[in-house]
């Protein structure tokens, strides 16, 4: 018996064909184990970060990359990488009763096939006016072909100084994010705004900018604004009524927050896609907290985005304190913009700003802007995408060419000089202070 066993064992060990595969598999297994171990240490041990590494917005060390928030943040981090292709803008143009024609004029002045546009006519406008606006967009052959202009089907009652304006803006942003994944900056305009440069000027200049710059005028709230805006508690009747009325003030007064700093500034902004995505998704809950805080805040549209961006480490250094508007204020106390007229044209043209506000309906200065600043003789401000003929009064923009080619004019050089100042070290040193 022992002899047979020994003989069998000898034949087994004498057959060495298994040795090479055995050691090869052993080497692979050891390599995989070492790779896993070293990978664990490298993920905690620092080292240089890849540009695509996921970084927590709140700096927390217990951030779990398995949650859906990590995927959302990864997409945002990827979107702030400087892109080589030409940028795209997403516009919200808003108005109220009697503003539909002014909104269409502003739309045509800032139109470009690369961009996205959404129009909101608030609930104070009669249903017939909203229907006419929607039909005008639907019937237009250019808008129908490009499919980049939308009219919000849900009309909201909006109080300028109340949170309903923020709610409407966030709703428009959410629609724009859902409908298109390729725009870079969000711009909000009202029916009383008007451009001072063409979209070819804008797109040409912004092609050379980093896609993570937010243009939002801001300053720390202080002085009389602390008592008149930060401490009072208001109720916006537009939240529960169907007729617009003034804000209601309560007798209670609130204390100033200690966990975040309050900022204020212009309600007109040019915000990056990555930042507005953060405001919509709000995975660290801060944007939602601020939304609830500003629900009862006087002039909340002039503080919500400003406070969010300046209290968020990832975005505070991207805030450029300028709203890219030319605005003439009343004196004193510089709280209400005056309506711009012919006497303001030279100052507007020299301001280098791409937009101005506010304008009265069909004021003569708008025709002067069309003629001398936009070279607008037909419906749209001209651009390289307009390849049709202008013979016999025809609209050259009725034929559409390559929308990645731009023909910048004098407005582009003015805007470039303005941005040169805004991006100087002296100006950037004042971010969120």
TrEMBL record:
It is a single-pass type II membrane protein. Keywords: Glycoprotein, Glycosyltransferase, Membrane, Transferase. InterPro entries: GLCAT14A/B/C, Glyco_trans_14. Pfam families: Branch. One of its GO terms (cellular component) is membrane. It comes from the Eukaryota. The lineage of its organism: Eukaryota, Viridiplantae, Streptophyta, Embryophyta, Tracheophyta. This is Beta-glucuronosyltransferase GlcAT14A-like. The gene is LOC101504727. It is found in: Membrane. GO terms for molecular function: glucuronosyltransferase activity. Its main location: membrane.
